[in-house]
Every structure is written in C-alpha cells, then in structure tokens.
Amino acid sequence: MPTVVRMVQFTTKTLTDAGRAVGRLIKSIEGQERLDAVAQPLSGLVQKLIPAGPVRDLLHGVPIGHPAHPFLVQFPLGAWMSANVLDLLPGGWVPATALIGAGTAAAAPAAAAGAVDFAAAHPEQQRVGVVHWASNTVAVALYGASFLARLGGKRTAGKRLALAGLVVASVGGYLGGHLAYRQAMGANHTESVPHLAPEGWHDLGLLSELPERQLRQRLVGNVPVLLYRDGERVLALADACSHLSGPLHEGELNDEPGLGPCVTCPWHGSTFALEDGAVVHGPATAPQPQFRARVSGGRVEVALA
Ligand code: FES
To answer: Where in the sequence is the signal peptide annotated (predicted)?
Structure first.
C-alpha cells in the first residue's frame, strides 16, 4: 500500500478516535445541570444589561440577517493568530504587539454579541456556552497580559502568554463550532420548510372555522403552518420559529407601527411580521418562510410562496 494512503488512513483513524473522545466530553458538558447555577444568573445579567431593543437586535445580527457573533470573532482571532505567526519571524515584534492590542480591543463587541445569543439559548446550549465563554475570557486575559508584558519590554513573557492565549482560544473556538454546527445555535431552523412542504395548494378547512385576529396552527403535510385571519384575508407563515423552532401559534399578537400584525414567539421573544415573515426583533435573524393563502368556495387554501 502506498505510503501516502497509509498516512491518510492513520490520520483519519487518529482524528476519528480523538473526535469521539472530545464528542463524549462535550456531550457530558451538555448534560451537566450544575452548570445551570452559572448559566442562568449570567443569562439574567445579560438580559438586564442589554435589554430588548435596537442594541440587542444589532448584536444578534437582525439587520444583516445572520448572527453577528461569528462575523465579529474574526477580528480578534485573525489579529491574534497573525500576531502569533509574526512572533516567529524576525522583525515581527512591533506589528505583533499592535495586532495583539487591536485583537484584544476587538474582543469586546464579539463577546457582547455572543452574550446576547447565549441569553436566548436552550439550557444544553447554555451549558456548553458557559465553558465556551470561560475559555474565551481566559484567552482574552492571556492576550491582554501579553500586550501589557510587551509594553513593558518583556519579550519572552509576551510571546509565551500569546502562545498560551492561542491554545485556549482554540479550545473556545472548538466549542463555538460545536454550538453552531452540532447544537444548531444561530442556524436557521426553518431552512427545511420549502423542502418538506408538499407543492401545490392545500385545503386547510373552512374560513368560518378560523377565528378572526387569532393565531391558529394547521398542517401542510407534516409542516406546521401558522394562520391569521382578518376578514376575508388570511396570512400564513411556517409555525416553527426560525430561531429555535418555538411554536409561533402559542405566541402573542401585536401591532408594530408600519408593519401591521406581528407575532412574538413564546420562547425567546423573536417577533415576525405576519405579512411577509420579516424579522422585526431577534434573537431570530432568519425570516419565517411564507405561504400564499387564498379563500376558495369558503375554504382556506395555502401554497408555499
Ligand atoms: S424559538 Fe427562540 S425566539 Fe422563537
């Protein structure tokens, strides 16, 4: 067998074994209810410090339609890692010091964005989130200490602290990946709706059985659909919230100026315009999939928009 194939097999097996061991470790973190004693007060503190409103929406990433945290962490991580490389090169000391200072400053908005996302997460996500948060706080402290050591002319200490920061930030980054890709925190939980809902128009019953200005749930195939009736007009959205699949039909109706009737999710307060599914307030950043609705022969019919 060629050497390269053996090397690939060895690497794959080593990574698989390591991945399984790390996976078991993180799974045990998800189930550690003792972490709730830290996560819940932290979540309450974040909600108090950054109340619902435009600042929290901005930190969630509502205006850009994606969570802001993964975008913002590029700045500190990029600066820090570049500094770690520059530390190995002749003449890299000054730019490395500048990058570590800039990266440490850039960690503040990234942390604020992560904090508001954390405060609107499931308990299992928050338990991993606490460890992710702790790792990143230590990383910031290490890079911050490195910056101060560099300003004091302590080159060896500055480089060692930055290297330690890189190791700890990598652990935090791995946990961030687990939160995003395994626990689907920040993902759009309605992406599958257009693939699951059967095509064409679907009969959802008599209009007269749909109460006016109330929220009701019906099924299109296996896909729950949220219905809202105003006279002869019916509005329809996917019922599972794009944030973490909360049941919108159990939410609250409200009127937002200029947007008409809106629904607020009962789980974490995301608000969507019923007219088109647009996100009015986070933590959701992805709009609700919309269904076209019509009344034919006194019956309500919907189809994917
Ligand atoms: S599930 Fe979190 S806001 Fe709807």
So the answer is: none
